[in-house]
Amino acid sequence: MKLNLVWLQSGGCGGCTMSLLCSDARDLFGQLRDASIEVLWHPALSEQTGFEAIEMLQACAEGEMPLDILCIEGALLRGPRGTGRFHMMSGTGKPMTEWVSRLAARARHTLAIGSCAAYGGITAAGTNPTDACGLQYDGTLRGGLLGGDYRSAGGLPVINVAGCPTHPGWVTDTLLSLALGGFDEKDLDPVGRPRLYADQLVHHGCARNEYYEFKASAEKPSDLGCLMENMGCKGTQAHADCNVRPWNGVGSCTKGGYACISCTEPGFEEPGHPFARTPKIAGIPIGLPSDMPKAWFVALAALSKSATPRRVRENATADHLVVTPAVRKTGLK
Fold it and tell me: Which of 160, 211, 278, 288 could form an SS bridge with 225, CB 3.0 to 4.6 Å?
């Protein structure tokens, strides 16, 4: 059975679409068609414009054309004063919030693509003059444009494919799972993220894990050491598989030398401290690994630092390998 997909862009940078174009699939739309997903319209990628696009959206909103998957990218701008008129859909005279609400009422599945659409994200940061929110969350609180009790025609809440931008594999895997009929509510975590990536931590597979194990920490951005103790990294707490499933097959934030800022998390845009600085109390980072008691971490850190090899200690605060691993016989036969 063919599944019709409509993708709309609201208040955001378009980065999730740019990310999607870096999908591992050589032919993204061909891959979706092979799964019986037909992209009816995407504002940046489709040929239809003007009245053709509006007629198609109107047909979906009125139930004249089936709408199986609705993907929203970018936060929903409710301002000023709840009118939604900060973001009007060109040529329709209606706010984007109205279009999204009408289409979501018809959609078999509704997906928030990226953290802006899921929770408000960067668009909702600071004083939030546009009154930006997510589809089913307003920051960390359930609600958003559609309300906390919203269910799509397929019976699911909004599927929050969160990330800033989201990983192309998270989007395609979710879409393909829906097409195969193998996705239901148990496949969502407590904040609506697909567990296919949210059951992992960014820490898993991190190239800096040896430094983390010995608590050999970076002191400046170019250092090779662990970024958790001083540089603000939240990889031990952030839910994503960025280092298990690298971007473009090779990269991630931590591999590129930048701390994980937990961009899949509601409210990540307002951490209460500079992104690249680790807040501490009595010299101990506030943000400890998500499932490790504080006393255990302190004891482990002290033991690890006392056992740190010279190679690891010296390389941690250098921008290249200063000491290479020793060459010794392993004793294996």
Answer: 211
